[in-house]
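JOB MANIFEST
job_type = single_chain_structure
chain_count = 1
residues = 232
[input]
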Amino acid sequence: MVDSLQITSAIAGFGSSIALLYYTVSPYTYPKVKEPFFDDSKIFKFFALGIVLGMVLFGLEEWSIPTGETIVVFVVLYAVMEELMKLIILNFPRFQKKVDTAFYGLALGLGIATTYTFASVYVSLLDLKNPGLFEMVGYSLLGLQFVFLHGATTTMIGVGVVRRDLKGYFSEALLVHLGYNLLMIPFFTETEPWSLMGLGAASALVVYAYYRIYSQSLPALIRDAKRFIQKK
């Protein structure tokens, strides 16, 4: 039987990711443009792949929860592992130098965020025994960080694959992920007074990273692709 915790977690994970995916790609597909810049069926396939990977990543990281002095080492390893995984998937020869790869990267990242956020919010609320409305809303908002984080970083890598600038864009994605993980350490270890400051800074970082790919990286990629087509 579906309970309020599952509904809250589903809205935080699935609802927010799907809404953000639609909002981000809608300017680049029908009816906004006559010829879409990506294949809808591939968008759904990458999103579905991300859903599976999100559960795998959550299970792996939940199983190996770091404590004490090892926490910094583990959060760095998590960030490197996740971003390398995204790079390996998106850098297959068939996806290189193709504009639609950036959008498939977006779908992959938001797919990962879907189940990762769902599981994180659900487990956190379950640990509270009897969470109220305030806790449900609070943890749901906290879960949105993962949506912005994975959506932004995977799209950055996708753009890097298209532009053949893997070093630059991968480094940027990794720095965002590392920055987020390190800033969240005080919050998860309940280290005062840095806890709320780290939470605020981490949230601002991932939201800004997503804003950049939405307002700058993707539009610039499409403009350059149009110029290239016109020259041919």
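[summary]
The chain has a mean pLDDT of 90.
DSSP finds seven helices and no strands in the chain.
exit_status = 0
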